[in-house]
Amino acid sequence: MNYVLLVCAVFFLSSCQAKTNSPDMNAPSVTIIEAVEKNQLSVVREALKNGADVNTTDKSKRSLLLIATQANNQEMAKLLVANGADVNQQDQIKDSPFLYAGAAGFAALVSLFLEHGARFDVFNRYNGSALIPACERGHLAVVKILANTKGFPIDHVNRLGWTALMEAVVLGNGSKKYVEVVQTLVNAGCNIAIPDNDGVTALQHARSRGYTEIAAVLENAAVQNGTKK
């Protein structure tokens, strides 16, 4: 009888030890936010499968998709949008996945978000579109995508009183990539005559800065539009 009790006790203790040493028992719990930050696709996929909110936010109101976007984690972004993530959800400083991708020059993500409901009437903290900072920073690939997207507000004016064209001229350096940005905007039909808050046009700014190639692009456009000054 004692032998039987001893065997049962050993079996019971062994079972408890096995459960204690289980990887699942010892693994620290990871929130879905942390999993996105660490680009743990399988963990995020499982969490979403089990009912996690795809639009969960962190303490700064950054959505999971915005966190993935800021890290340019394209596969994570694809997983999240496939599960219904809002590409327009803004954090406490008004960044959204779509706006941030445009400003950062993440062309692949811009295209992805355009395919998943990107809105053109949601603006950043400067009341700017995704195109305006892309032009400022010379992100030509993004400029080409957005400037040629049907319905995109290419001539939107931000809080500073500047259009995308104006920012490309005033905040650019006149180099080749900015010439291409300006040419792309002109080819897409931007209004070159919209002045800044002081009444100065992009062409006038280009001339005053000695950006001769940009000035030439704008002068040619002005001739074609019959607005040369």
UniProtKB/TrEMBL annotation:
Keyword tags: ANK repeat, Repeat, Signal
Secretion signal, residue range per the UniProt entry: 1-20
Domain of life where this protein originates: Bacteria
Keyword Membrane among UniProt keywords: no
ANK repeat start and end residues: 60-92, 160-197
Protein name: Uncharacterized protein
Species this protein is from: Niabella drilacis (strain DSM 25811 / CCM 8410 / CCUG 62505 / LMG 26954 / E90)
